[in-house]
């Protein structure tokens, strides 16, 4: 290992090969603080050539590596395991915006760019990069691409895969593949780009990407609707889509218990209604004409929903400050649940038409498995993605509750499968769901995944133990 590390120092400079325990600590623990791996070193390249040099050394010395961006993942995909033989490849220094083409509506960026910085650079060019999620101030675009991240704008703009036109990738052998052409049409064989997006660094290292930009909307209007059931939320979704079309950019479902947690742990936040309601929907409309036009459309949708008895009440934000306050209700749910104590998370997708039925049935099944547990159900209803989380009963010790995780996961994931859904909608598989997925993917799918992995990474050096076991 020391000979390998000396060779890495020759590529990077000694100051960018971290080996002291104090320097390593921030790279080895997952975002939720539940798992800490081991590693002999963290390697911090500054450009694609250095990444290629490092991967050639890893191939030569048979040293496994774990690519890492902002380390904000939730499925143990960006931290090493306990074996202690894998180095961490941190891409944080590779954070340049290489080019912006407003006419082509594209931006070329390096993998270590913080998502929020990309959003700001697009805005400076009077353009929109629509990927938006809670960790946008610390997650990197390389990590977003590696997990095919979703977020709140998927309903209108799609997952990260749909927002990427080309990639630069370093293979497990240290070769550089570049398709940074910014083309929307390129029908010249296998789509190699899509192999690496969502692969969680198990096939190669994404070092740069060409991203799609959009014209900035002239107005964004936010509303919060109160209603009784998820079934009514689906009715509201159909009504809003019929009237708003693609201008409807967000449609988020939140249960009353979610907001009660927010109010408990973020006491500066207030309920915009006089009384509580079982369910809430946060809607956002991006309009290309004017705020007045957007507000008129929303008022029509809300008015129709009230007349038809779909919703009980609604408020439309009258200012940017009010809009941010409504979004904070949604964005603070995960942190509020963390403040409440340990919880069991599920990032699932269900056919949209069956979500209400899924929640009703699966809530009952989970209560049978873990009586008195509290359901924290929220998420991107417009694209079928729920964060179907479970908190312990009041007074139960965290350790006692987490001991039930495997049993609760089995109940939830079996129900997801029965409804034709997926046990990972936007977080990926990592190490946390690597074995779980073998229950739900067919033998043919698993065989094809292993065939691809073995072909591109025959020595199993790229993020070993993640996504699929070979």
- Strands ordered across the widest β-sheet: 15-12-14-13-17-18-16
CATH-level-2 architecture of the largest domain? 2-Layer Sandwich
* Envelope shape: globular
User: What is the terminal-to-terminal distance?
Assistant: 24 Å
Question: Structural class, from secondary structure content?
Answer: alpha+beta
**What summary fits the major beta sheet?**
7 strands, antiparallel
Average pLDDT metric: 95
What is the fold-level CATH name, i.e. the topology of the largest domain? Answer: Uridine Diphospho-n-acetylenolpyruvylglucosamine Reductase, domain 3
Give me a quick take on this structure.
By secondary structure, the protein is an alpha+beta fold. The protein has helices at residues 2-12, 21-28, 48-61, 115-124, 141-147, 154-157, 192-196, 230-244, 256-265, 291-307, 320-331, 333-340, 355-369, 398-402, 405-418, 443-456; strands at 17-18, 42-43, 65-68, 87-90, 97-101, 106-110, 127-128, 164-171, 176-178, 204-212, 214-215, 219-227, 248-255, 279-287, 313-316, 347-349, 374-380, 385-391. It comes from Herbaspirillum lusitanum.
Structure description:
The protein is an alpha+beta fold. The chain has four domains: 2-90, Uridine Diphospho-n-acetylenolpyruvylglucosamine Reductase, domain 2, CATH 3.30.43.10; 97-215, Uridine Diphospho-n-acetylenolpyruvylglucosamine Reductase, domain 3, CATH 3.30.465; 219-334, Alpha-Beta Plaits, CATH 3.30.70; 342-434, Alpha-Beta Plaits (2-Layer Sandwich). It is built from 16 helices and 18 strands. It has helices spanning 2-12, 21-28, 48-61, 115-124, 141-147, 154-157, 192-196, 230-244, 256-265, 291-307, 320-331, 333-340, 355-369, 398-402, 405-418, 443-456, and strands at residues 17-18, 42-43, 65-68, 87-90, 97-101, 106-110, 127-128, 164-171, 176-178, 204-212, 214-215, 219-227, 248-255, 279-287, 313-316, 347-349, 374-380, 385-391. The protein has a seven-stranded antiparallel sheet, with helices on both faces. A five-stranded antiparallel sheet has the order 5-6-10-8-9, with helices on both faces. Strands 1-2-4-3 form a four-stranded mixed sheet. Helix 9 packs across helix 12 (333-340) and helix 13 runs antiparallel to helix 15. The longest helix is centred in the middle third of the chain and has 17 residues, at 291-307. It starts with a helix and ends in a 14-residue tail after the last helix. The mean pLDDT is 95. InterPro entries: FAD-bd_oxidored_4_C (IPR004113), FAD-bd_PCMH (IPR016166), FAD-bd_PCMH-like_sf (IPR036318), FAD-bd_PCMH_sub1 (IPR016167), FAD-bd_PCMH_sub2 (IPR016169), FAD-linked_Oxase-like_C (IPR016164), FAD-oxidored/transferase_4 (IPR051264), Oxid_FAD_bind_N (IPR006094). Keywords: FAD, Flavoprotein. It comes from Herbaspirillum lusitanum.
């Amino acid at each position: 290992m020391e000979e390998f590390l000396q060779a890495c120092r020759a590529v990077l400079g000694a100051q960018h090969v971290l080996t002291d325990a104090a320097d390593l600590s921030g790279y080895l623990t997952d975002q939720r603080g539940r798992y800490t791996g081991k590693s002999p070193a963290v390697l911090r390249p500054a450009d694609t050539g250095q990444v290629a040099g490092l991967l050639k050394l890893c191939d030569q010395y048979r040293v496994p590596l774990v690519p890492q961006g902002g380390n904000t993942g939730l499925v143990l995909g960006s931290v090493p395991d306990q074996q202690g033989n894998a180095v961490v490849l941190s891409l944080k220094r590779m954070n340049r915006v290489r080019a912006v083409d407003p006419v082509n509506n594209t931006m070329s960026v390096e993998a270590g760019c913080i998502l929020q910085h990309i959003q700001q650079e697009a805005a400076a060019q009077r353009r929109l990069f629509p990927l938006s999620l809670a960790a946008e101030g610390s997650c990197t675009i390389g990590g977003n691409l590696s997990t095919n991240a979703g977020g709140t704008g998927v309903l209108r703009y799609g997952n990260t895969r749909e927002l990427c036109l080309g990639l630069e990738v370093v293979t497990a052998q240290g070769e550089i593949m570049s398709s940074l052409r910014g083309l929307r049409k390129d029908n010249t064989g296998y789509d190699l780009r899509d192999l690496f997006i969502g692969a969680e660094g198990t096939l190669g290292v994404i070092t740069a990407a060409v991203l799609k930009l959009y014209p900035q909307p002239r107005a964004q209007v936010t509303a919060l609707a109160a209603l009784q059931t998820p079934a009514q939320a689906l009715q509201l979704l159909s009504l809003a889509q019929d009237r708003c079309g693609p201008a409807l950019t967000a449609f988020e479902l939140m249960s009353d218990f979610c907001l009660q947690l927010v109010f408990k742990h973020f006491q500066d936040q207030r309920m915009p209604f006089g009384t509580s309601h079982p369910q809430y929907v946060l809607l956002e409309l991006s309009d290309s004409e004017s705020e007045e036009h957007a507000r008129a459309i929303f008022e029509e949708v809300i008015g129709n929903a009230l007349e038809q008895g779909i919703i009980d009440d609604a408020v439309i934000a009258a200012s940017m400050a009010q809009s941010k306050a409504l979004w904070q209700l949604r964005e603070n749910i995960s942190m509020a649940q963390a403040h409440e104590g340990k919880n069991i998370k599920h990032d699932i997708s269900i056919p949209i038409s069956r979500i209400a039925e899924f929640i009703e049935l699966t809530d009952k099944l989970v209560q049978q498995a873990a009586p008195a547990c509290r359901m924290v159900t929220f998420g991107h209803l417009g694209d079928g993605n729920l964060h179907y989380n479970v908190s312990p009963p009041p007074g139960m010790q965290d350790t006692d509750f987490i001991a039930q995780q495997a049993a609760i996961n089995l109940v939830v994931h079996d129900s997801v499968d029965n409804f034709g859904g997926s046990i990972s909608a936007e977080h990926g598989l990592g190490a946390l769901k690597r074995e779980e997925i073998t229950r739900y993917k067919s033998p043919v799918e698993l065989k094809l995944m292993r065939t691809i992995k073995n072909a591109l990474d025959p020595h199993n050096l790229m993020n070993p133990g993640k996504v699929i076991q070979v």
